[in-house]
Amino acid sequence: MSSCSSLSMDDRVKIGYGSIAGASLSIIGSIGTIILIKIRNKKQEKKLLIQRKQQLSINNLNINSGSSSNIITISNSTTSLSSNNLNIQPPSFPSYSPLPTSISLSNNNNNNKNNNQKTKVSHFIINLSIANLLASIFMITIKLMMIHFNDKFIKVLPSTANHSFNALISVCTIGNGVIGFSFISTFFWTLAISMYIYQQFLSSSTINSNNNNNNINNINNNNNNNINNINNSKNNNSINNFNNSNKSNKIIKMLFYFVCWVIPFVLGSILVSGSRLIELNSDLPWCSIDSNIQLISFYFPLIICLLATTFFTILIKYKFSNDKLACSSSSLINLQSKIIQRLILFLIVILVCWVPSLISFFISFFSKNCKQFLWLEIISSTIQSCQGILNFLSYLSIFKKLKLYFKNLKKKFNNNNSNNSNNSNNNNSNNFNGGGIFYSKGKKVNNQNSNNFYFTFSTFDFDNNQIQEK
Questions:
Q1: Which residues lie on this side of the membrane: Extracellular?
Q2: What pLDDT is attached to residue 427?
């Protein structure tokens, strides 16, 4: 979508093939990301269903055996504390009416609906992958038509032939709009991921703090009314929280859809209106976008999204550093750390893909002769088309695994050169777990959070029930 015409026909062909190569890889990466998320979500749903059935069986067994009087329910189907573990004496009355099975079933159903209706990070990544997929498909189609079907590429539609020159509609001008729409949508969805994760970090800290205070107050109440008060308050709170969160999540979801799809579509339409045909008498006619319109409708939203995503990522990192000192849950710390690592990778991807394009645009924008560098144009066009495949690699944490692999390889090489064979063997056993890049470190591997190398980020739904200590 360059606004200059200083490059030759051969130069534009080279740039076009670079974009086609990068877009082809991005199609593979975008489809792979969507498939992996869908598979992981199915596995998570089956796992949660099994856990709910097991919890329901335990509740029914406790009710039938009469031993449920020693169980204090703290959260819906997720955490239970024994009165013996809390050093609280059981109620002095001989027996009481336990919680009916129907209430347990109702709570399980509410939790299931609540989890399904939560706005999840994996859902945001799917939309980001769809936007990358559309951008790649449009990029390949437009570039191939420009190179091999140029007569149809610049052919003006009959309905617009009698209009002004800048308003001529062709495949070329429409292509500028749809490519711009898709790429702008990727900017907005990347920003949406960082904003949503930051909001979840804040809300999870607040909810956990309130839940802990309420649990302590409820446990310190009169032992005779302790269980009834907790059950009644939690049932009422679960219903109210479900209704409120359901409404708020629907509003948030619709807002994100509007911002990340509708607004980019409007901006893409502006790019179409700002496109014009140039070099009609050359061997490879093409169309360009007015530099001012391109700045306002494309690069200005890009700059805003880059700055905002960086800002929210820094806030999340700062928030995590503060919460880490006060949090005693190692599993929660590991989960939050993985979320931040992948968010940083997504930020790095969008910076790597679009900073060269920004540099190229502003060089031509402020130069008098619309100066362009062929090598910079090829790099920027190729890398920006690779956003989908780079997001896919970030989703798999390939970069971190490669770094760990080469670090361990260096340690292994140093250990082999050491004269102390015992220390060498110990270091090798500590540094390697399976000896390949598709495995985690051998030290302190959390089976619950590191079961599968390929499916990590899709588990970071960060629902309130998931972030509590189990």
A1: 1-16, 145-176, 275-295, 364-372
A2: 52
Looking at residue 434, its amino acid is G
Domain ranges of the chain: 9-37+121-396
**DSSP for residue 156:** B
Give the residue among 325, 35, 303, 307 at the shortest CA–CA distance from 194.
307
Residue closest to 134 by CA, chosen among 167, 177, 183: 183
Tell me, what's the pLDDT at 150?
73
Instruction: Give the pLDDT confidence score for residue 343 in this predicted structure.
Output: 86
Confidence at 210, pLDDT banded by 50, 70, 90: low
370: region left, alpha or beta (phi > 0 left; psi from -120 to 50 alpha): left
| Residue predicted with more confidence, 115 or 49 | 49
- Return the number of other C-beta atoms located less than 10 Å from residue 12's C-beta: 22
What is the rounded CA–CA span in Å between residue 260 and residue 189?
Answer: 6
* Closest to 210 measured CA to CA, from 218, 220, 221: 218
Q: Looking at residue 242, what is its pLDDT?
A: 56
Query: CATH code for 9-37+121-396?
Result: 1.20.1070.10
Per the CB < 8 A criterion, the answer to whether 69 and 91 are in contact is yes
The three-state secondary structure class of 187 is: helix
406-425: buried (b, 16+ CB within 10 Å) or exposed (e) per residue?
Answer: eebeebbeebeeeeeeeebe
Q: Report yes or no: 453 and 396 within 8 Å, Cβ to Cβ.
A: yes
The 8 Å CB, 24+ separation contacts for 216-224 are 219/72, 219/81, 219/86, 219/88, 223/88, 223/89, 223/90, 223/91, 223/92, 224/91, 224/92, 224/93
User: Residue 426: what pLDDT?
Assistant: 54
Give residue for tokens 């110990």. Answer: 426
Q: What is the pLDDT of residues 393-423, one digit of tens each?
A: 888 876 666 667 666 776 777 776 665 555 5
- Count Cα atoms within 13 angstroms, Cβ side, for 145: 20
Residue 309 near residue 194 (C-beta atoms within 8 A): yes
Tokens at 309, concatenated: 């995503």
Give the tens place of pLDDT for each residue, 105-114.
344 444 444 4
Give the span between the Cα atoms of 42 and 27, in whole angstroms: 23
CA distance 130 to 127: 5
Q: What is the mean pLDDT of the chain?
A: 71
